[in-house]
Amino acid sequence: MANQKGGVGKTTTAINLAASLAQAGERVLLIDMDSQANASHGVGVRVAHGEPSILEVLMGEESLEHVVRPSAVTQLDVVPSSPEMAGASVLLPDLPRREYRLRDALASFLELDASYRYVFIDSPPSLGLLTVNSLVAADQVIIPVQAEYYALEGLAQLLSTIATIKERLNPALRIAGLVLTMVDARTSLARQVEQEIRTHFPNLSFKTVVPRNVRLAEAPSHGVPVSMFDPHCAGSDAYFDLALEVVKHG
Ligand code: ATP
Ligand code: MG
């Protein structure tokens, strides 16, 4: 998940897509690249003081296999973040292969354990080195877009960053699609934004739109994905549909 805009639904999408696929029986890994650690907390994982997180992995001080943990969801493991990750933007630039730190660590880990069918990476709201590491480690990028007036603002910059990374660092990278989040179907604004996105990006938009649904905002405080909090709510249905689309597009 990438979008340098804050609060557009990256973490909510990462958690609930990962959980949907895990609950469908796939083994899934969720990597939290954000110092806010919302994705970790949202699946019930908190790093205690002194315990290693993704920061130590990126620094080369700990291998991924020693940091990965089970989450509140069966079949879903998480590589957690912690507030200490805030230091990464200062520490990473001086390291060798600074754009490839996550990719290299993940490759070594997946060589040891090839049983993960999907890996989801939640990135922070910036286009800095942490998001670059996420995009270099990924083969597809999902772009959550909030259904609001300024939805498309910043998208051009994100798309050009993705293009540059594809050209210089990760030729295999492709855009899986834009997914519209927090859609209030009763407003004409939401319909306008959806129309605009489908017109601008006809082949790049997921059919599924995620409605504004308070259960999606409540679930993280219980440390579980929405499907375990309220399996029959509209938010849960939407992320299940989105997971089906992700599976279908491979
Ligand atoms: P950041 O850029 O800070 O990492 P983000 O892009 O990861 O933010 P989220 O944390 O997923 O965005 O969502 C922002 C806020 O909106 C959170 O409080 C979340 O619970 C809420 N939220 C996300 N999606 C929905 C939705 N479909 N309906 C209602 N609330 C939502
Ligand atoms: Mg987030």
Describe this structure in words.
By secondary structure, the chain is an alpha/beta fold. Helix content is 41%, strand content 12%. It contains 11 helices and 6 strands. The protein has a 4-stranded mixed sheet with strand order 2-3-1-4. Strands 5-6 form a two-stranded parallel ribbon. Strand 5 (140-146), helix 7 (155-168) and strand 6 (174-181) form a beta-alpha-beta unit. The longest helix has 16 residues, at 234-249. It is globular. The two termini are 16 Å apart. The mean pLDDT is 96. Adenosine-5'-triphosphate is lined by residues 6-12, 34, 36, 38, 125, 181-182, 210, 212-213, 216-217, 220, 235.
Query: Count the helices. How many?
Result: 11
Small-molecule binders: adenosine-5'-triphosphate, magnesium ion
Uncertain regions spanning at least 5 consecutive residues: none
Approximately what portion of the residues adopt beta-strand conformation? Answer: 5-15%
Order of helices and strands: HEHHEEHHEHEHEHHHH
Based on CA inertia axes, which overall geometry fits? globular
**Alpha-carbon Rg, integer:** 17 Å
**Largest sheet composition:** 4 strands, mixed
By DSSP, the count of extended strands is 6
Query: Distance between the terminal alpha carbons, to the nearest Å?
Result: 16 Å
Mean pLDDT: 96
Give the % helix: 40-55%
Give me the secondary-structure category. Answer: alpha/beta
Strand order, largest beta sheet: 2-3-1-4
